[in-house]
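cron nightly-structures :: item 1 of 1
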Amino acid sequence: MHQRQCPRRALPEWAPNSPDLSPIENLWAWMEQQLGARVGINNTDDFQCRLMAIRDPITLTQLHDLFDGMNARMKLVAKFQGGHIGK
């Protein structure tokens, strides 16, 4: 039995852990936007309360949307040859 040879292709040089391809990183980026300038945060308790106020209203639909957008994000990362897509 002969083993079929597959042509070798050059792999793009980008990190396998691209934050653009991580739904949790996209969620953190959105939460950071909601957090804004962090005005009125004077200690860790204030910070935790503010994060919980942002996190608590997140819906299951919003979380599903993060995963559903993965295909589009993968295409953008490929288009930019592994560069940051800015989303």
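cron nightly-structures :: done
The chain has four helices and no strands.
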